[in-house]
Amino acid sequence: MSVPLSLIDFCHIYPGENASQSFARSVAMAQRAEQLGFSRIWYSEHHNMKHIASSVPSVLIAHIGAQTEKIRLGAGGVMLPNHAPYAIAEQYGMLAEMYPDRIDLGLGRAPGTDMNTLRALRRDPSSSDNFPNDVVELNGYLSGNSRILGVNAIPGANTNVPLYILGSSTYGAQLAAKLGLPYSFASHFAPAHLQEAVKIYRDTFQPSETLKEPYVIAAVNVIGADTEEEADRREEGIHRQRVRSMAGRGRFFSEEQLDQIINSYQGQQIIEMLYFTAKGTAPQIREQLERFTELAQADELMISLQGTTQPEAMESMEILAQAWELDPENTAGVPGR
């Protein structure tokens, strides 16, 4: 049986567009994903990035939840060191009351931004050192077992919003295993430590009240097209767009200059971040994702739809649903429950 498929939506702002248009597309994407049978959609917390609009996932989830019916929605993730755990418990507790049994909460340790912006968020860069304690404190609020006498999340207490530890290294794997929580690895942009992290997580997993068996979500990019040649063309465009964005940081490059950067060590490093990419027609994508599932020992795949335009990304979603033979009536719930 194929594992469930979920989506990560970065709420891209394409050239010439504004955030309002990005949000409208995210609604349309969620509605179509629900019709096709995808299990969940997660939204990432990024700050001070002019091409990404999802700076506050909880607000976006509330907006999209009101315009969908059953697909699970969550943060992929909240960068917990940026926030007080109590505030996050209130936000996601409120969402859980609005949309029962539909809300997930993925938790990351990275800031999701640069150091100057982190300081503008009024957070100390060293706050990430307290991440494990913050996760436990947050879980206490959501389970109704607050660690601070007389302080309860209202709403939030007893909603038991499911927590997921996110990671791109072995650190998150160790923490998720110790706490008995599901683990989601960001292999769509950090492929290097996928197998090592998953092995550590599965080998050292300690069952908890929340989860009896380890549960791995592995992220992977997808580029779908009607022909292999068109998929290759789209991949080249994606690589050029990504290198221009990450290497340029606001500077203008001619096509010739961009070619030079792409062929440089720096450019190849950026492209290597997309190593785990399933590309091609529906049968080709299915075969590649099946191999990736086995490699990652994944219980669920989190898909990052790739395209230089939104129509390309949406076409990839349609081709992926066809390839995986998704069933709109068979969406995933919460692992271990």
TrEMBL record:
Keyword Isomerase among record annotations: no
GO cellular component, one term: cytosol
NCBIfam families: oxido_grp_1
Protein name: Alkanal monooxygenase alpha chain
Domain of life of the native organism: Bacteria
PANTHER family to which the protein is assigned, alphabetical: LUCIFERASE-LIKE MONOOXYGENASE
Location of the Luciferase-like domain: 16-239
EC number(s) stated in the UniProt entry for this protein: 1.14.14.3
Annotated Pfam families: Bac_luciferase
Family assignment from sequence similarity: To bacterial alkanal monooxygenase alpha and beta chains.
Listed transmembrane segments: none
Gene Ontology molecular function, alphabetical: alkanal monooxygenase (FMN-linked) activity
Keyword entries, A-Z: Monooxygenase, Oxidoreductase
Residues annotated as signal peptide: none
